[in-house]
Amino acid sequence: MSSPDRSAELLVIAERVVAMAAPGEQVEAYVSRGLSTEIRVYEGEVEHFVSAQSESIGIRVIRDGRTGTSSCGTLDASEIAEVLAEARDNLGYGEPDEWAGLAEPDGVAVVPQSLWNDSLERTTTQRKIELAKLLEKLTLAGDSRIRVDDSNYSDAAGEAAVATTTGIRVAGRENGCYLSVGTLADDGNETQTGFGFAVGRNVDELDVERAAREAVDRATRLLGATKPDSRRVTVVLDPFVTAQFLSIIGGTLNGESVVKGRSLFAQRMGETVANSLLTLVDDPTNPLAYTATDIDGEGLAARRNVLIQDGVLSKFVQSSYSARRMGLPTTGNGSRGGSGAGCLALQILPGTRSQAEIVTGIDDGILIQQVQGLHSGVNSVSGDFSTGAAGLLIKNGTLGAPVREFTIASTLQRMLLDIAEVGGDLEWLPMSATGVSLVIHDVTMSGA
Amino acid sequence: MIDNDILERVLAEGLRTGADFAEVFASDWRGTGVGLDDGKIEQLSTGRNRGAGIRVIAGETTGFAHTADLSEAGLMAAARVAAEAARQGGGGIKVVALTTQAARIVSPIKIDPSTIGKAAKVDLLRRVDDAARSAGGAITQVSAGYSDGRTRIVIANSDGLVAHDERVRTLLRVSAVANGDAGMQTGFDSLGHTMGFELFDKVQVEDVARAAAGRALTKLKARPAPSGSLPVVIKAGSGGVLFHEACGHGLEADLVAKGASVYRGKVGELVASPLVTLVDDGTMTHEWGAIAIDDEGHPSQYNVLIENGILTDYMWDYLRARKEGRPQSGNGRRQSYKDLPMVRMTNTYVLNGEENPADIIKDTANGVYVAHLGGGSVNTATGDFVFGMTEAYLIENGEITEPLREGNLIGNGPQVLRDIDRLGNDFAMGNPGTCGKDGQGVPVGDGQPTLRVKSMTIGGTAS
């Protein structure tokens, strides 16, 4: 038994709102409904079980270049009428913006994605609990120094629909499940932490063994770590770290930031901004990406965009607003409710060598396995970059002792130019950027 | 919002499968937000969100379900889901009799922002834009946000408690970009209180705008921050987040119980410099983290966590206090009705010392003076923390000299607490903050007098 796709009902609600548009008004309605489960296991018992149901509607009205929005956490018909009235009232206080407007259908074909899996719906609660318990058990069995903080199973199913007076009509649904475990490793002197996770469209795709192994590994490998001396070094970013770094780079290649004078790459189109080894694409149409999607937040087809080609800046991601303002076509990267533009599934085109091969060629360096405080340490407007880090020393081509409590710092502009190699070890991660080992020269390390 | 007799029936439904505790947390939020960017009021948005979360505890297992449907039928359905989730077998009927608690007011509200016209809110942002742009010709971009929200809350549980609360928060955020020869720099400032629109009678929004613009302008002349370990002097009201991250989280009883805190088993021990007395205070009138009751209905408290360097107590919610057989401390908080409560901080601050702050700087031969800190994070199990310096200067020969570009500051919580060697007498609260834990954000405040840490690692690029 599986539930039918009810996103069409949401589209009916959205269309009903759009039909209420007065002459001269542009109206967009975004309607969504979701159901999620979260199970936490601790010491073999269910610690909590959360069952969550939510629904919401967001309405945007544009008239004479003025925009007003309003939202509400229920789909009651009486409330929806009030939301529309509020959005209309709100636009009276906005200032006219000649570029304000909703996305218009642009003829780009949608690349269909399979974002829904019926079998997840049929999975019993018992099986979900067992998975979280199994993950805890396997993790504890991995190393005698390991304790488990919590072991979690979660899943979510969501349906959404967008309709606009400009002719956009889309609806769809998506589901997926996730396992995660937090670990503590003690050696008598100190405690270190780690985590592991697994993602899938159904529970059979969840790689429990790998999640357990990585959670053990992340915590134990830092035991006995020391603080390294301050110096300039070559760093090798682990794929998971590269992905976090890419998310920040992606944020700077954004048409909204460019038109508002906040992008450090604003005047650099067509120029060399990175080492020629780097080709960066945003490709939500690649089904391997966990954040693959068929449409963007404005209801346009998601598409593949090359942002940096062989080191040369080639494109900014755009919402319909920023594209209109820059006189360019949109790239299908609009955020929901007209709140900006964003990358959907970033990927560096991989090189050829494995991380192990890369390390053999480095005399003095550090393999960065985790970063801390990236959000507070990077200024995406000035490009200043500084983050707490932990990892392994690299000496004469060999991985050595663990190190922690140091920072690596540079600027985003310099780091891109200082890329010395892109690994061949592409890794798909549950975030909007893909991982790959990345070698960067001449990074300042601050420690003792 | 919901009648007591309905609450009684819903709680009884939650207990039907044999659970020993049931709770309803219902809230109704209404808010307004206005954004200004690029010289224009971009959009005004309003929202409403109401619903109830129902928690049922049976032994060691908590079941939780939430609904946007506040009718009796909607609440009963959620109670059944939560009860089923917490099912321990057995089953019985327990009668719940509720006693409404007297309302408690910590932050009296003079002007409910929902009674103020939208035009007045828009006008605040226009003033911000003007003031920030007038601060210097190099200011090239300003964005600002105003938001207010009023939440009505009802909490009832099977121990017989019913508590009502009404929370009003008003917030202004300003961010400015300055453009100079060496590229762009940013500056940020914010103002937020558990207060109504009277906030803007007390504080001129132009001052907030000028502070943000000033930070961006200052950094145009900044040189790269040093790399390595140096003494760090932190200006009053700008480094409370250090205590929030470096030790506050480690004093949350849920993390302590799982052994995920470096402060486990340390009550009664010296964990900080004897100069340090650290308090978590939900009763601090009008501060961003102030609450009359926590999200489990327990009155907020003034809790001393560290006294003269000695760890005195952790912070507690219902579940942890129940397990340890001790009183709660008013720290059970949640982001919304959709979330389970956890142990959370409120306003966390270090009490005043005795020194003149100018003397602390004068006695520092070489170091860094931090005048504004950005966000941070901590690993509670190791105590390792990181946060960003968004306004900092060099100290050379006992004087504050050149401004520094942004960089992270890193350290280990227990070590930094021991390394505080000077404490000023100029206590101030800092910017309003949002504390994240397990995916939930709650409003918190922090504060501290000017103080010096003997040595911290500065993650800059200058050698």
What is the topological layout?
The complex is a heterodimer of chains A (448) and B (463).
Chain A: H1 7-19, E1 26-42, E2 45-63, E3 66-72, H2 77-91, H3 118-122, H4 125-141, E4 146-164, E5 169-186, E6 191-200, H5 208-220, E7 231-237, H6 239-252, H7 255-259, E8 280-282, E9 305-309, E10 312-313, H8 320-326, E11 346-348, H9 355-360, E12 364-372, H10 374-377, E13 384-395, E14 398-411, H11 412-417, E15 419-422, E16 438-446
Parallel strand pairs in A: 7-12
Antiparallel strand pairs in A: 1-2, 1-4, 2-3, 4-5, 5-6, 7-16, 8-9, 8-11, 9-10, 12-13, 13-14, 14-16, 15-16
Helix pairs in contact in A: 4-5
Chain B: H1 4-15, E1 21-37, E2 40-58, E3 61-67, H2 72-85, E4 99-100, H3 118-134, E5 139-157, E6 161-180, E7 183-193, H4 199-202, H5 205-220, E8 227-234, H6 240-248, H7 253-257, E9 278-281, E10 302-307, E11 310-311, H8 318-324, E12 332-333, E13 342-343, E14 347-350, H9 357-362, E15 366-378, E16 384-396, E17 399-404, E18 407-412, H10 413-418, E19 420-423, E20 428-429, E21 433-437, E22 440-448, E23 451-459
Parallel strand pairs in B: 4-6, 8-15, 14-22
Antiparallel strand pairs in B: 1-2, 1-5, 2-3, 5-6, 6-7, 8-23, 9-10, 9-14, 10-11, 12-13, 15-16, 16-17, 16-18, 18-23, 19-23, 20-22, 21-22
GO biological process, one term (chain A): proteolysis
GO molecular function, one term (chain A): metallopeptidase activity
Domain Metalloprotease TldD/E N-terminal (chain A): 27-90
Could you provide a short overview of the structure?
The complex is a heterodimer of chains A (448) and B (463). Chain A has 448 residues and is an alpha+beta fold. Chain A has eleven helices and 16 strands.
